[in-house]
Design a protein that fits this description.
With 157 residues, the chain is of the alpha/beta class. The protein contains 4 helices and 5 strands. Strands 1-2-3-4-5 form a 5-stranded mixed β-sheet, sandwiched between helices. The longest helix is centred in the middle third of the chain and has 24 residues. The chain is globular, with a radius of gyration of 17 Å. The C terminus is likely disordered.
């Protein structure tokens, strides 16, 4: 199957996709800050430069885009053009994500993994529940929290 746009247009479109300071990141950061949490962003000395680093809580929050990280949810769809390229790219991202997660945990960091689909298009009440879950986790002792799609559950340690 061929692409529906020419290669220059596709290149311009792809270069506009941000890896940092995405809308989901900004939403979570603003809400955590409003609750009094202070954090650092994208610390390069930690595996994967986590999106939000809360040193006081020895915790990081990773906010993954569903497409780029291969989350099998309503927002993810395998591209029809260049399927082998995309499968290799996304599966490589998934492998690296697992490696970074393991490294962070080995270093003693607590990890919250939040997927884009958990907050994209969410109403105020739902966003408040997500932030409340993160807040409880930060103030608790669980080593990890996984928020896949609005439901929260602890990752088995």
């Amino acid at each position: 199957m061929t692409d529906i746009v020419d290669s220059k247009t596709r290149s311009r479109m792809m270069s506009g996709i941000k890896g940092k300071n995405t809308k989901p990141e900004i939403v979570i950061r603003q809400r955590l800050h409003a609750r009094g949490y202070r954090f650092r962003l994208h610390r390069k000395d930690l595996p994967g430069s986590p999106d939000i680093v809360l040193p006081k809580h020895q915790a990081v929050v990773l906010i993954n885009g569903c497409f780029w990280h291969g989350h099998q949810c309503r927002l993810f769809k395998w591209p029809k053009t260049r399927p082998e390229f995309w499968r290799n790219k996304i599966e490589g991202n998934i492998r690296r994500d697992q490696q970074k997660l393991s490294e962070l945990q080995r270093m003693g960091w607590r990890v919250c993994l939040l997927w884009e689909c958990a907050i994209k298009g969410a109403n105020e009440e739902h966003l408040n529940r997500v932030i409340e879950s993160i807040s409880k986790w930060l103030n608790g002792e669980d080593s990890s929290l996984f928020i896949p799609d609005g439901r929260t559950q602890a990752i088995s340690d």
